[in-house]
Amino acid sequence: MLVSTLGFFGCLLRPFNPDNTYYLGRALAFGVLPIGGLKPFFIDSDKFDNIEGPAVIISNHQDNFDLFIIGGIVPHNTVSMGKKIIRLFPFFGQAYWLSGQILIDRKRKKKAMGTMNQAAKQMKNKGMKVWIMPEGTRSRGKGLLPFKKGAFHLAVQTGFPIIPVVISSYAQQLNMNSLSYNPVVVKVYDPIKIEGELNEVNALKDHCEKVVREGLAEVDKMVLEKRK
Description:
By secondary structure, the chain is of the alpha/beta class. It has helices at 2-12, 20-32, 66-71, 92-98, 109-126, 150-158, 201-227, and strands spanning 38-43, 56-59, 78-83, 102-104, 129-132, 162-167, 182-188.
């Protein structure tokens, strides 16, 4: 509540600026992750630096805490794409909206498509990256869910690369009553160029889903090694 309120007033100084996400995300990660008993380890985050212009960033989605984990690694000039209802969440929702995130109404396909087209224009005009969780909903520790097509339509439409980010399985380790911390590994994978057979939405979606699924097995193994 405190971080979100301070973030809201901070974003009032430059409303809807895409770089607000970087600062709000870092503040939320610092303030909230210890409450959940999580200690993130970021791997290959410097790969974000190799993509100076726009890109579509994708990651798996397990729990509401994803937002705070991602906040510790989100690069400059990046916004996320989330459900429109988020803006109604007390404190956090208002800060999230004012920080310039893209809010989409998935129940209304025409409006959702219009929002995606606006996102494409903003990416080109502002040179920003867009972070999307293509599962569309939280898996809650049940493993990776099938990807939806929105992120891949956006990538094919714009021609901007996709950067996969994989968060290790942590949903079952959340513990608000423990003083110990569980490790969470977050790894950034090589950018995927939109070319050749990957210039088609279904092929791109299937390829990215395979990359994230294999990456999840890799980072989960890293977590086990850190617990030894």
